Structure to design on (551 residues):
């Protein structure tokens, strides 16, 4: 391929660097004023009640690329986890570019597009496993790898200025049960040909050794469930199809009927079957039919392993599920790891289950889970195969990224980058370096509305969740005088504070001079006085609003 005059090869992460989730990475080729772009993955992260109350999904702010969407060739998806595909239906209208994915991933994306009413507007172009794409100056090959979902892919991205290997999420597992093993031959061949940059998963960079085999988990789950006598519920990531098959296998080996509980479980099983996986999956009993079976004959496979508020297991733990009830003699197996940030919600759920008399079994007690991400020995192996000139540590929090970079340097990689979202790096020509800071940030899905993270209302909502709300209504006559007793409404404020706030309000009313105080001055004086009184008595500053009605 001929190198264009003044062409550069650049890398731009807009999500997934410095955090777990929301993966969105872009590559640009060409002169600075006319780059061809491809995007790899388009994911979300989930809102948390403590920090983002009321927010369902969080996704990257992509305005930098949206403003030059005529130069965006495509979005290429590595695999079907939500932190890699979950934002497509929300962000695609800003880009309106082709989508490329392997069959299983494409099936789940098409479901999302249908839910969003976009199925007639955008088509997912299906790439076969091991397939090839030509997108302008990019020659892209899909490389089979192993992860905790069917059809994960690394991408070999060849450009006139060098080859990038984008790993996506991956691990090494000699027996993944479903899907291919990581294609060692292809990766070694790329290393022999020369790799400019390895853009690589950092999730387990702090974890020594290897991640472990899915086949060993299958054996252990069946053995563990054989020891349990009552109803058993297993919760796991629904996308881990091999794990779902293992749970189904454990049910069959222990003479239990399998019951899927939670929408995501049904959706993933249907997608897997439609794309040729789970061919030997047993019949699934309905929740209602399972009620008629003896406890020792039932195995529930549930969503909710991360303590999600409205998940199936959360409703079971709270005693609010329509048809599934657990109690003394029953057990719940958490066949998953705790994703950082979810600790409190998971522990709360586990305590709720324990209060019901349910035995709670986790990876801390039994061998019921292996990670889908590479530990340090696996990372080292990837570097030995590919031998890149540049290591780019993505898909991780800052500490994980930094440790990944240190590991790469210890393996004699000449350069190691630790990018932040919005940083634009030139990978070639010359030495890799940061060349620009682009607009970036987060977009929140609040119900059905997309809003920028920095909009003022989001701060007010956090404050209200922490310190409540006070609303004062003042009624003025046409001369600006107080016409009737003011009204004050408290939401989420301790009753012990109410009288102090009312006293402060009475003081403002007594001091009010219509000749001196215009409407805005009165509102601000009232707001300050009431808020200060609440703060002095309580130690918290509630959101305080003052409304004026003229009569």
């Amino acid at each position: 391929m001929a190198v264009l005059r003044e062409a550069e090869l650049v890398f731009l992460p807009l999500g997934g660097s410095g955090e777990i989730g929301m993966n969105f990475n872009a590559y640009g080729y060409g002169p600075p004023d006319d780059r061809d772009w491809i995007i790899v993955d388009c994911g979300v992260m989930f809102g948390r009640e403590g920090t983002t109350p009321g927010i369902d999904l969080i996704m990257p702010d992509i305005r930098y690329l949206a403003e030059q969407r005529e130069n965006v060739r495509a979005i290429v998806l590595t695999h079907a986890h939500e932190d890699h595909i979950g934002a497509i239906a929300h962000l695609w209208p800003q880009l309106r570019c082709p989508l490329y994915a392997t069959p299983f991933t494409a099936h789940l994306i098409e479901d999302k597009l249908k839910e969003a009413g976009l199925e007639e507007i955008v088509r997912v172009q299906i790439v076969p496993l091991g397939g090839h794409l030509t997108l302008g100056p990019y020659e892209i090959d899909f490389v089979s790898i192993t992860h905790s979902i069917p059809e994960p892919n690394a991408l070999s991205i060849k450009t006139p200025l060098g080859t990038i290997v984008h790993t996506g999420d991956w691990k090494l597992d000699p027996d993944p049960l479903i899907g291919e093993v990581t294609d060692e031959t292809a990766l070694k061949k790329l290393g022999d040909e020369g790799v400019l940059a390895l853009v690589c998963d950092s999730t387990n960079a702090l974890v020594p050794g290897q991640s472990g085999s899915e086949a060993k988990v299958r054996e252990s789950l069946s053995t563990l469930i054989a020891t349990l006598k009552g109803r058993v519920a297993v919760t796991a990531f629904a996308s881990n199809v091999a794990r779902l098959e293992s749970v189904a296998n454990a049910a069959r080996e222990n003479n239990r009927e399998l019951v899927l509980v939670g929408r995501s479980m049904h959706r993933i099983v249907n997608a897997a079957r439609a794309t040729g996986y789970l061919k030997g999956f047993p019949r699934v009993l309905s929740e209602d039919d399972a009620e008629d079976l003896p406890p020792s004959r039932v195995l529930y496979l549930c969503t909710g392993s991360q303590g999600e508020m409205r998940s199936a297991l959360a409703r079971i733990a709270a005693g609010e599920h329509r048809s599934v009830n657990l109690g003394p003699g029953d057990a719940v197996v958490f066949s998953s790891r705790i994703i950082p940030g979810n600790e409190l919600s998971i522990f709360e759920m586990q305590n709720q289950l324990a209060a019901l008399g349910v035995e709670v079994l986790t990876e801390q007690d039994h061998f019921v889970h292996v990670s889908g991400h590479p530990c340090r020995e696996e990372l080292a192996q990837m570097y030995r195969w590919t031998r890149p000139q540049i290591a780019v540590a993505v898909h991780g929090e800052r500490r994980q990224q930094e440790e990944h970079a240190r590991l790469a340097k210890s393996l004699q990689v000449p350069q190691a980058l630790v990018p932040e979202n919005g940083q634009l790096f030139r990978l070639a020509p010359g030495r890799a370096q940061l060349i620009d800071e682009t607009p970036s940030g987060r977009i929140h899905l609040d119900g059905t509305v997309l809003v920028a993270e920095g909009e003022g209302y989001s701060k007010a909502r956090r404050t209200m969740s922490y310190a409540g709300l006070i609303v004062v209504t003042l009624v003025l006559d046409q001369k600006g005088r107080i016409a009737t007793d003011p009204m004050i409404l408290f939401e989420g404020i301790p009753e012990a504070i109410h009288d102090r706030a009312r006293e402060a309000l009475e003081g403002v009313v007594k001091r009010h001079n219509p000749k001196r105080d215009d409407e805005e001055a009165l509102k601000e004086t009232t707001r300050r006085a009431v808020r200060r009184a609440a703060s002095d008595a309580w130690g918290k500053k509630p959101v305080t609003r003052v409304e004026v009605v003229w009569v």
